[in-house]
Amino acid sequence: MRIRYKLLLVVIPLIIAPIAIGGISSSLSTRNAITEIAREAIQFKAEELQKYAASQWNLLLENNLEQKDEYVEAAENSIKRYAAGLIRSQTELFAAAGPDGRLKFSTAEIELSGEEQEQLVELYRQENSDWLHFSLGGIERVGQTVSFEPLEWMFLLTERESTFYEVVRDINRRTVIILFSVLLISVALISLFTRILLQPLQHMNDVITGIIHSGDLSRRVPLQYRDEIGDLGYRFNIMTEKLQEAYDQIKRYAYRAVVARTQERKVRNIFQKYVPLDVLEEVHDNPESMLKGDKRELAVLFSDIRGFTTISESLSPEDTVESLNRFFSVMVEIIMDHDGIVDKYIGDAIMAFFGAPVKHKNDPEQATRVALKMIEALEQFNRSQVELGKPEFEIGIGINYGDVTIGNIGSERKMDYTVVGDMVNLASRLEGLTKVYHKPILLSNSVAKGVYKKIPCRLVDRVRVKGKLQDTSIYTPALVLTPDEKKGWKLYNEGLRHYYTRDFEKTLKYMQAAGKYLPDDSLITLYKQRASGFMQTPPPADWDGIVSLAEK
Q1: Which of 91-100, 280-289, 324-333, 539-548 has the lowest mean pLDDT?
Q2: Per CATH, which fold does 3-168 belong to?
Q3: What class, spelled out in words, does domain 290-479 have in CATH?
Q4: Nearest CA among 492, 352, 372 for reference residue 439
């Protein structure tokens, strides 16, 4: 909004408000005064009319003529004439109404509506009234009513409202004319003054616009007045001089920044092969937090090639490195496609995590799907190994989910963005247990709880790994289940339920039934052996089914 409009919004209300308040005050005062005078005048006439009607009725009573209709009618006509004689203007109207709201007489011809007649009935019930606003014959009126019980009449002494408040409306009209005139004069004067006052600012605006379009900081503002606005123009000219100097310096810095950014992009492209892009971004954005740790909840995956020492002995060093590089290329691609971070290579093992630096809602599920796809990709990799005349690889994968400490750990000369903690150690132990249970993938209880609704999982065992006092349930997943596998898993799970309740006969029965659908399943074989052994030599009374493992 322009300044002149703001001035108008501020000044005009200050001018208009007193005039409006004065006009409204005068209007109200006049209205009250007119009302009071008219009330007294109408009240006087009402009292006179009531006295005259009473005198006429008393005259009938004194002569015992109140029961004779012709004399009563003569008295009523006399009252009507007297009421007509009280009228002093053409807009006054005196009338009388009965209990039913019908008019007994009226000093002017009027036709009542049904609503007006109901209003008169209501007024009749109220007897005398002080001051009223009502409608008669479709015309708004003011006045008062007076009851006269002998004739069961209610006198209405009224004046047309438009005539009654004509003076008030005249005052309002004059007030509006004055307000409008003052408004026009104020707008004209304020517009003139603001144009004079704001002319230097307009010149400054023109100069600024020219600088924006042309970029020429040598332009200056002409100084017209020796006041605050003139001082502003002087300081603006000084500012543009300083900006010109700063602009020249910025151009020199910008050239250096472009060169530095090109070099930085080259360095990033090189280091992305060693450090995840997310980690590079975090270090770039928050370099001061490089050596700080952070507690996160994420999934950790360990993958190891079984018997790699034996495999490497059968290959030349060049073939060993070439096979490992092809294997890592396939597996790392799968990990990174599912928002995973490859933490490190430990010889022939891969350590990866999911949920940092960016946390996702489905990190355990992503880690599990990565493991399943790694097993699928291994089949294709092994086919290529056979074609090349090289030995096949077999891998084990362990996944855990929980709280870890994560950060750039190391020194200023060498550091890794890695995770540490007991939860990481358990993931490594699970990978080692894949050799014990002959299953390629093992999940901790925390991972299975997060994925079982989307990925089928079955309980493998309840174990206490080396170095931990607390036991954990371990599971193995499947990407999809065939109809036979679904039946076999169901029987297997039922057998496990009986196993942990020490009913080994039923355990054996269900495991044998499950073996018909899963003939080569190592877990079914394991529990058949355990159940048979416990049937011959029952476990101690405090047996809880937990297996303590001494090996890592």
Answers
A1: 280-289
A2: Beta-Lactamase (3.30.450)
A3: alpha beta
A4: 372
